[in-house]
Each structure stands twice: as C-alpha cells, then as structure tokens.
Write a structure and sequence with these properties.
The protein has 136 residues and is mainly α. The protein has a domain of 36 residues. It has 6 helices and no strands. The longest helix has 37 residues. It starts with a helix and ends in a 14-residue tail after the last helix. It comes from Rhodopseudomonas palustris (strain BisB18). This is DUF5330 domain-containing protein.
C-alpha cells in the first residue's frame, strides 16, 4: 500500500515538474516559483506530521482504515495470483497437442547402448605438456 502511495507521490511530482507549453490558459494561472513550491510543500509535510497531535481520534481511525485497505489489497493480489496460477494449470491440462515426435525421442534415449570398453573408462585423460621453445 505504501508503495502505491509513494509511486503516486513521485509520479505526481514528475508531472508537476515537467515543462509546459505556453498557452492562453497558462497565462491566466498564478505564477509560482520553485522555491515557493518547496516552501509550501515542506509546510504541508510539517502540518501533516502534527495532525495526529491535533486530531488523535481521526488519526487512529485513519490508521485503522489504512490497515483494512492494506489487507484488502493483499487479499486482492492473492486472488489475482491464484487466478493466474489456475489459468496456467488449466492451459497445461488442455490436452496433448504434439505430433508424436516427442515420444520418439524419449524412446531413442531408452535404447541407448554404451559403446565404451572398460579400458576406455579406466584411462585417465590429461593434456599434453606445453611445448617450450628456446629463446635466443
């Protein structure tokens, strides 16, 4: 839940800070500088941090509401996950749609014959020593 709130905050911030084209409507809007916006935002954050001191009942109910919303979001995500898993399971159980070539390959593996002699298995393989040349 907090991820969604953070994402909404940052997305909103990006959208606010994007450069805008000059239009007749934008000339009618109040002009606000970046420093004024930062000051207003810090004052709003400071005010929100003091909200629970001024209104403890509203803050408590808000916390309970956030908990309920978080649980519902978790249950909803779990349901969606189960639907996706069940859908994948149903896709696998639709039936065999292969032409039989898969079974032919499997049967070829079963008829594998070992062609190595016991002496071949005993021999320890090593690389030949590197050739050295005399430097003049």
């Amino acid at each position: 839940m907090f991820f969604l709130l953070r994402m909404a905050f940052w997305l909103g911030l990006v959208l606010v800070l994007l450069p805008r084209e000059k239009t007749p409507e934008s000339d009618k809007l109040p002009q606000l500088g970046a420093s004024e916006a930062v000051t207003a935002a810090s004052a709003a954050v400071s005010d929100m941090s003091q909200f629970c001191k001024r209104q403890p009942a509203a803050c408590e109910i808000g916390g309970q509401a956030a908990t309920v919303i978080g649980q519902r979001a978790t249950e909803g995500a779990r349901k969606i996950y189960q639907i996706i898993i069940e859908k994948r399971g149903n896709d696998d159980k639709r039936g065999n749609d292969h032409t039989g070539s898969i079974n032919a390959v499997a049967s070829a593996d079963e008829t594998h014959q070992d062609t190595l002699a016991p002496d071949d298995l005993v021999t320890e393989w090593r690389l030949s020593p590197p050739e050295t040349t005399a430097a003049n």
